[in-house]
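The methods section describes the discrete structure representation at length, but only in general terms. Each protein is reduced to its one-letter sequence and a matching series of backbone shape codes. I believe one specimen quoted in the main text would settle the matter. An entry of this sort, consisting of the sequence and the corresponding backbone structure tokens, reads as follows.
***
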Amino acid sequence: AIGDGIARGVEVARAAEAGHGGTARPAAILLLSDGAQTEGLLLPLEGAARAKSFKIPVYTIALGTPEGVVEFNRFGGTRIIPVPPDPATMRQIAAQTGGRFYEAESAGDLREAYEKMGSLVSKVERKQEITYAFVAGGLVLLLAAAATAVVTFPRLP
């Protein structure tokens, strides 16, 4: 399902771009997964190839530990399924698309990965006051004009 998920992300990004007349921010996909392909039509690297063809970077976070398991309770019985992450695949997806790869074995690691990615995938608009630059420029021109007037037209006898 990873390859299919990336392909769907590409479709959504392209639709958003088309909806804004091509003026939307550059798209990026964030993939948070254990990296293991369990179902779906497209393989992970096929989805990555699709993202690359549209110049959409995929930032990946391999979630989990090598000892990770999921427990299912069905019909009164517990079934334990190992779910170790596949960082090699996640790393390949990021490298192939121009994104970055992160590993998160804990909530703290995940928080740290999000913090690192924040500046890469988001845009923060800042307003900066530049009035002082115009005031300083005007003051310099005023002083230059005054100096020129004193030199050119002296009033003292």
